[in-house]
């Protein structure tokens, strides 16, 4: 069963959206490296106080978490991650 990566809700009251952690030019890389999360459309994705598209701290937390995940799974250094994604978040 799918659930919101941030709050754990199942999407019955607020449908879940698929969010690319590293967006824009890095959307395909997010897909390739498994950096996709399900988020409640209103509460956690777009409009809530801690929504990733509204709250820079939430977005940074996601970026840092998934940067560490990618680096560990791909055996990448921080410099290699920066080369791949254009920026380091840690």
Strand order of the largest sheet: 1-2
Low-confidence stretches: none
Structural class: alpha+beta
Dominant shape? elongated
Give the overall pLDDT as a whole number. Answer: 97
Describe the main β-sheet briefly. Answer: 2 strands, antiparallel
Number of domains: 1
The share of residues in helices is 40-55%
Instruction: Indicate the proportion of strand residues.
Output: 5-15%
The radius of gyration over CA amounts to 13 Å
Helix run count:
4
Structural features, described:
This protein has 90 residues and is of the alpha+beta class. The chain has one domain. The protein has helices at 27-32, 41-46, 56-74, 78-85, and strands spanning 16-20, 36-40. The termini are far apart.
List the helices and strands and how they pair.
Blueprint: E1 16-20, H1 27-32, E2 36-40, H2 41-46, H3 56-74, H4 78-85
Antiparallel strand pairs: 1-2
């Amino acid at each position: 069963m799918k659930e919101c990566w941030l709050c754990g809700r199942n999407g019955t009251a607020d449908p879940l959206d698929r969010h690319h952690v590293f967006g824009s030019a890095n959307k395909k890389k997010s897909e390739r490296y498994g950096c996709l999360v399900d988020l409640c459309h209103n509460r956690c994705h777009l409009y809530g106080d801690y929504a990733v598209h509204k709250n820079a701290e939430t977005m940074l937390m996601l970026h840092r978490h998934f940067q560490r995940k990618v680096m560990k799974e791909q055996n990448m250094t921080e410099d290699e991650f920066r080369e791949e994604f254009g920026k380091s978040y840690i």
